[in-house]
């Protein structure tokens, strides 16, 4: 994939839609293109958060460790952005991301990510929007799970 193709891929991601192409070109050039095979982990829950990943092609599962083993809680695909929570909050990874198929990514280091947010405040607003949507989705799923457990317990 050429730099121009990576820039086009970045432009199709809402997070980067309003950033000028020359900046996206710099970002694509400064990021690392990685390919993961099916079943390979991008990162594991509890790892240090050193980078975020833009999924250029392929699909990935998000899982969390439970007493009963790994539980898949979400899936991501082309044009999604993963791993930003650990770099934004400076906390260990909150989940494990595993490739469901061959997965082509751009690895965005913490330093590059923060430089982009500082240069483009609208990108920070978009990050907040995406995180708020994920929080709402997670809260809904937790509520559904709690209600299912209550129903099971009263049966």
From TrEMBL:
Pfam families: cNMP_binding (PF00027). Residues 15-134 form the Cyclic nucleotide-binding domain. It comes from the Bacteria. This is Crp/Fnr family transcriptional regulator. It comes from Kiloniella laminariae.
